[in-house]
Amino acid sequence: MRFENNPDQSIVYYSVGESKQKFNDEILKKELPYAILTMRSNMTNEKMEQLIGYRDAKDDAGLHQIKLNDSITAAVDAGAGQRYLHFVKGNWSIIVQASSIMNQSAEKPALKLLNLIEKYGLPKTTGKSTIYITVGKSKGSLNNVFKWQLNDKYYQLDAHSLTTALKMLSSLE
């Protein structure tokens, strides 16, 4: 693990290396992180809202709807070889992006996310929040992005694994 800090931003990089290293060792900068947790402060609410990029369910008017489970219906949008599912759960706007060219499913990761949220929960927020999942993985990809506000701070978790992301989020205080 390595940590960067300045008065307006703190970043923690989590990685798994070949050998044990000291905290913040310079060699850790060469490793691919499996997760990055960022906390930013000294921002206006307007700037935080802009970074979070919340999308309201009202924005989905006219789009095809599919039922993910008994309580969640998602809007389906497509274009340029991509398929997007959008739904809202509590204060969280969730978008799952999949490649229709690569025959990727957006529904399966959306259902996996809902199951993980049921099991682990989501962090406490004081504003609108977003989750953006890009289906598919490659070495070093951080395809699961969670953005939220808690009081006067902006948080973002970028993670390679959806399961790891939800486990990490459940442990935040």
Outline the structure in words.
The chain has 173 residues and is α+β, with helices and mostly antiparallel strands. The chain is 18% helix and 37% strand. The chain has three helices and ten strands. The chain has helices at residues 45-52, 107-120, 162-171; strands at 2-6, 9-14, 35-40, 64-67, 73-79, 82-89, 92-99, 129-134, 144-150, 153-159. Strands 1-2-3-10-9-8-7-6-5-4 form a ten-stranded mixed β-sheet, with helices on both faces. It is globular, with a radius of gyration of 17 Å. The model has no long low-confidence stretch (mean pLDDT 92).
Order of helix and strand elements from N to C terminus: EEEHEEEEHEEEH
Question: What proportion of the residues form beta strands (DSSP E)?
Answer: 35-45%
The number of helical elements comes to 3
List how many beta strands DSSP finds: 10
Q: What portion of residues is helical? A: 10-25%
Distance between the termini: 19 Å
Low-confidence stretches: none
**Average residue pLDDT:** 92
Shape: globular
What is the alpha-carbon Rg in Å?
A: 17 Å
Question: What is the structural class?
Answer: alpha+beta
Strand order of the largest sheet: 1-2-3-10-9-8-7-6-5-4
Describe the biggest sheet? 10 strands, mixed
